[in-house]
Amino acid sequence: MEEENNKKITIADVAKLAGVSKGTVDRVLHDRGGVSRKSMEKIRQVIDELGYEPNVYASMLAMRKEHVIACILPDSIKDDYWYLVREGFEKGGENIASMNIRTRIFLYDQYSPESFRKAGMQLLESNPSGVVLPPFFKNDTYTLANALSLRGIPYVYVDSKLEDDGHFAYYGMPMYKSGYLCARLLTLRVPQKQLKGVLVVRIIRDKMRQSDPTLNRRSGFLDYMAEHYPSSDIHNLFIDPQAPKDTERQLNTFFKAHPGIHHIVMFNSRVHLLSDYLSRNPDPDRVVVGFDNLEKNISALSSGLINILICQHTDLQSYNAVMALSDYIIKHKRPERKDNFMHMDILTSLNIDNY
Amino acid sequence: MEEENNKKITIADVAKLAGVSKGTVDRVLHDRGGVSRKSMEKIRQVIDELGYEPNVYASMLAMRKEHVIACILPDSIKDDYWYLVREGFEKGGENIASMNIRTRIFLYDQYSPESFRKAGMQLLESNPSGVVLPPFFKNDTYTLANALSLRGIPYVYVDSKLEDDGHFAYYGMPMYKSGYLCARLLTLRVPQKQLKGVLVVRIIRDKMRQSDPTLNRRSGFLDYMAEHYPSSDIHNLFIDPQAPKDTERQLNTFFKAHPGIHHIVMFNSRVHLLSDYLSRNPDPDRVVVGFDNLEKNISALSSGLINILICQHTDLQSYNAVMALSDYIIKHKRPERKDNFMHMDILTSLNIDNY
DNA sequence: TTTATTTTCGTGCACGTGCACGAAAATTTT
DNA sequence: AAAATTTTCGTGCACGTGCACGAAAATAAA
User: Fold this and answer.
1) Mean per-residue pLDDT for A123-148?
2) Which whole-number Å values give the CA distances from A27 to A32, A151, B308, in the listed order?
3) What is the H or E stretch that residue B330 is in?
4) What residues have CB less than 8 Å from A63, skipping those under 6 apart?
5) Range with lowest mean pLDDT among A347-351, B83-87, B321-325
6) What share of chain B has pLDDT > 90, as a percent?
7) Sign of the torsion formed by the C-alpha atoms of A120, A121, A122 and A126
8) DSSP assignment letter at A342
9) Which of A10, A213, A255, B262 has a 20 to 30 A CA-CA distance from A175?
10) Please, which positions of strand C sit below 7 A from a protein CB?
């Protein structure tokens, strides 16, 4: 059908062929009613026949609305996990700035659900055309998602997603699998019988957060270990990220008590917290695996303190989310898949360049 | 300076403040001369003061020109290396189709420089606004690049790049490093003394191509091996991709003669050519490393025939190239870096999902 | 039928930029 | 100084869509 004879088909062409005015064509294009059934059918048919496609530029030019894509985020220091999310969002923002779409970030205190709600209200007031929504406090996130649904504002989950199905898209990571992969990489060079045990370092107050996605990662890890090294011990050590000296002392104590253990993992993004201890206590047999491409992690990898980093493009998630929303705003196109799981990158000191 | 009080600054605003007409402002915006020095300076100053930024939509709407981004490629069967380049290019094309930028591919026979020149002429005749240019025949590519330069058409090298500096951008891979990484991954689990040797499988007629980028990769590989396994042998086996049965026979013969060798690498994208032999001759000690995310390679990885695939986003290269060019056409923005080296992904059967 | 109401539809302007045309101003030539 | 030429600049329309306004047509109420 598609008429590909150089000239672009416009609304006027459709109108003429359908024997109506371009106003009417516009009405059916945007489903805004007030068109008789006969006209509508005729117009739809002509649109198909001619293969009409709207001109994005003319459309955006005519539609004066100023578009805003918003994001709600925990306030965070530089080089934090959430900072990566933020960076990706902002990168996307730069990319679409010239398309007259602005971005706004609403920050909250990750230890105060109250502040989340407040930020959520402000976000709604800004009347965005799309929202990037990393769930944090489950119930409050759900409330916010509902409010957005009600207003017809598309929202994209990143990081993890809630069970509601009203989201526009999701960009996240296969947490369970990442844990499984982590276990495998950790034990790559270890024959079955030699593995004495593994130390899992955890953050003491992560219990606070209602739903911790790293739990799934831990499950994946434990399952692999149970399958392949059933007799090896998994030790847990809880550290306080705000007390680096305590951390170092704890690690010292632990490894004095368990001289046979050389394998360490952390399931969140903060493996760099171990850097101090690791650099002061070299061990040729040691293997350390961590997650996420924080700058500090990457430099720890480069300098050999840790061995492997499993990266899941935390920043790409929010970047993709922004781009998906802007594509929807500009071209009215939905992403190919609604739920998108990111690829896991294995980073070692050898392939860390150009990352 | 930037006036951020909601209203967008237009050319008319600039014109009024500079005491000229918008036609004149347009002239300085596009450097098309015919403007007195005094006016020009005044206008430039006002533009800075007001922080004027052109409206992309209005600009593209007014400028009727139909933009084409072209690519010159070896004709290839599906699931070939060059097919990946093509897929990336086409994916980019889909993405910008709604922005009224078309893509065109000019194919040539990779065994005929003559056909390359012909395709190049056709490409020039299509008068593209930008070109994605994977070098193949060195001299002819250089000639084509020159012709493009002369016409002011930006061209982006992908895959590898020539020494001229006229290119708009480059998206490629650190070949040497990929070889080095390959060697390391191949020998990950092998103690120094146990490695008897490695088999390098090569394509018999790759000598034909004037500059073969995989040579660098081979250098990286050999350097690593010389450093870490100085006493191990590197065997070369030349196969003909069009004679699968010969290949299998050659491999059989080789491994009968060298029972101690279990490590295989191929430096091009065709490690899948070994699949038949590998599946019919299982060897628990075997390690196979290959390159590039061809579908056949990926399925060989999934089914455990090969162990590691080093991927360099062959498709992303051409995709990025298209996007960079379209960004330039639409927003007049150049990429952040001129030369972009892609990241190397390490793929195992464990992290191959969602790739 | 006449009037009132609702449904359907056409007209025309605005969005901001690019560019062609030709006029005005400046400069050179006669 | 007048004419010819060159330089500089202003005017106005086109691009294709969205949307407001009000007219025409269809339907309902009188």
Assistant:
1) 95
2) 5, 22, 55
3) helix B314-331
4) none
5) A347-351
6) 76
7) positive
8) P
9) A255
10) 7-12, 14-21
Identify the CA nearest to A287 among candidates A334, A348, A246, A229.
A348
CB contact under 8 A, B57 and A100: yes
The pLDDT-based confidence of B353 (bands split at 50, 70, 90) is confident
- Select from B184, B343, B354 the Cβ nearest to the Cβ of A355: B343
pLDDT of amino acid B206: 62
Residue range A228-238: mean pLDDT, rounded: 92
3-class secondary-structure state, position B87: helix
Question: Taking the model in full, what pTM does it have?
Answer: 0.88
- pLDDT category of residue A191 using cuts at 50, 70 and 90: low
- Tell me which residue of A74, A127, A67, A136 sits closest to A102, measured CA to CA: A67
CB spacing of A174 vs B354 below 8 angstroms:
yes
Cβ-based burial of B118 (10 A; exposed 0-12, middle 13-18, buried ≥19)? middle
Q: Do A58 and B57 touch (CB under 8 A)?
A: yes
Which are the contacts of A13, defined by CB distance < 8 A and separation ≥ 6?
A50, A52
Angle of helix A37-50 relative to helix A11-18, nearest 10 degrees, comes to 130
Domains contained in chain B, CATH given: 2-54 (1.10.260.40), 62-172+314-342 (3.40.50.2300), 175-311 (3.40.50.2300)
Q: Which nucleotide is nearest to B59 (CA to C1')?
A: C17
Angle at which helices B314-331 and B81-97 cross, to 10°: 30
Contact A318, A158 (CB under 8 A): yes
B119-143 exposure pattern, b = at least 16 Cβ within 10 A, e = fewer? bbeebbeeebbbbbbbbbbeebbee
Sign of torsion, CA B68 B158 B330 B144?
A: negative
CB A139 within 8 A of CB A117: no
Average pLDDT over residues B184-203: 84
Average of pLDDT values for B156-184? 93
The band of A3, judged by pLDDT with boundaries at 50, 70 and 90, is: very low
CA distances from A129 to A68, A125, A142, B37, B110 (A): 6, 12, 19, 44, 49
Q: What does the block give as tokens for A40?
A: 């509508």
Mutate to test the interface with B, among A10, A61, A104 (most CBs of B within 10 A): A61
State how far Cα A268 lies from the chain centre.
15
Dig out the tokens for B186 from the structure. Answer: 């191949």
At residue B289, what are phi and psi to the nearest 5 degrees?
-120, 135
